């Protein structure tokens, strides 16, 4: 851990760095490939919507010796629809049948009770009408749209419109990947899934805003220096917050991984999968997009401005001149870059470092006083 902390400190000070912005075309290509895969998965397989969105019935049975496969077969024969059956920790079964007429629920419950050899009164039935499910789906989309609009407005005010656009692209990227994974895996989409999606969008914005805040602070007087372009300082901002983003993401992923792989996989608590998968995939995608998508995209948009184009020409010209004269091309922190002109204009100081040149004027005289 001390080595990781040391690495983070060196990245923050600009002693070492990785060229994230310079290799942005690679990251864009990877993101486009993943996004296309997610879209194809959505188009081909579609989402496995829960009864909360489709309407249907959920039957919870008492403890029974029937297997999940047997219960699925019994439910299909009783309703004429495919059923999703989950084994609960008590040995009971949760039988979910979507798209059925709720008026037929009593007949289906009686048939299930007979097939499973349990009493009909012991089976609990929860019914969801199709109109209510459609209303829930519409509200979920409305909430997501309002969230996006508010995020764009806030970022445009707090930072600038280019950062708002980049953050919006990153959020759409995260949502597309997460929903695509749901389509490919076949996990059920429930209201818990929607809650998970909204939660991971908040985490994604957190990482993105941390980088944007650092970038905004370091580029206040960027046009007053000639050492670094906007892309150079954007890259420094990513490197300076990289270890922090990794640490927060790993800490958030560990408990979610416990829910998904141990709770939902090993222990068989399938009801945890709907929210834990969206959190796990979304947190990872959010950390990726804040580093590899949002900030490089801001740098691309900013470099199109006339001021930044002129700055880039001055920086490249100075670097070319320094290289021709055999001088090292300046590297280091952006803070030093902004003091470049001030340092060049400062008068030369004679005498020991840290002392004024006038302090040695009286030396060698008997009294040590000035004349």
Automatic annotation (TrEMBL):
The keyword DNA-binding does not apply. The keyword Secreted does not apply. It is found in: Cell membrane. Residues 345-359 have a biased composition (Low complexity). Residues 360-371 have a biased composition (Basic residues). Its main location: membrane. Residues 111-303 form the Protein export membrane protein SecD/SecF C-terminal domain. GO terms for molecular function: protein-transporting ATPase activity. GO terms for cellular component: plasma membrane. InterPro entries: SecD/SecF_arch_bac, SecD/SecF_bac, SecD/SecF_CS, SecD_SecF_C, SecD_SecF_C_bact, SecF_bac. It comes from the Bacteria. HAMAP family: SecF_B. This is Protein-export membrane protein SecF. It comes from Streptomyces naganishii JCM 4654. The lineage of its organism: Bacteria, Bacillati, Actinomycetota, Actinomycetes, Kitasatosporales.
């Amino acid at each position: 851990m001390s080595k990781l902390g040391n690495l983070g400190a060196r990245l923050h000070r600009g002693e070492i760095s990785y060229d994230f912005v310079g290799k942005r075309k690679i990251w864009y290509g990877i993101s486009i490939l993943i996004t296309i895969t997610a879209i194809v998965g959505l188009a081909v397989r579609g989402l496995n919507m829960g009864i909360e969105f489709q309407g249907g019935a959920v039957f919870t049975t008492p403890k029974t010796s029937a297997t999940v496969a047997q219960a699925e077969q019994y439910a299909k024969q009783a309703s004429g629809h495919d059923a999703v059956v989950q084994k609960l920790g008590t040995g009971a079964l949760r039988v979910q049948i979507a798209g059925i007429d709720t008026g037929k629920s009593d007949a289906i419950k009686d048939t299930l009770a007979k097939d499973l050899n349990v009493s009909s009164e012991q089976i609990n039935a929860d019914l969801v009408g199709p109109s209510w499910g459609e209303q829930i789906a519409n509200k979920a989309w409305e909430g997501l749209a309002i969230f996006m609009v508010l995020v764009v407005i806030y970022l445009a005010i707090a930072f600038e419109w280019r950062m708002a656009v980049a953050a919006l692209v990153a959020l759409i990227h995260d949502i597309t990947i997460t929903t695509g994974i749901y389509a490919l895996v076949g996990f059920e989409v429930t209201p818990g899934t929607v809650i998970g999606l909204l939660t991971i969008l908040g985490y994604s914005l957190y990482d993105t805003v941390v980088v944007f805040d650092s970038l905004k602070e370091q580029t206040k007087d960027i046009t007053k220096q000639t050492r670094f372009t906007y892309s150079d300082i954007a890259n420094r901002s990513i490197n300076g917050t990289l270890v922090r983003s990794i640490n927060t993401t790993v800490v958030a992923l560990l408990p979610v991984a416990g829910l998904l792989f141990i709770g939902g996989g090993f222990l068989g608590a399938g009801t945890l999968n709907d929210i834990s998968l969206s959190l796990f995939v979304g947190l990872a995608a959010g950390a990726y997009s804040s580093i590899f998508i949002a900030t490089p995209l801001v740098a691309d948009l900013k470099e199109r401005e006339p001021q930044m184009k002129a700055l880039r020409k001055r920086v490249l010209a100075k670097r070319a001149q320094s290289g021709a004269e055999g001088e090292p091309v300046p590297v280091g922190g952006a803070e030093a870059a902004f003091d470049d002109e001030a340092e060049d204009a400062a008068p030369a100081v004679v005498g020991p470092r840290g002392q004024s040149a006038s302090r040695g004027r009286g030396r060698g005289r008997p009294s040590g006083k000035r004349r």
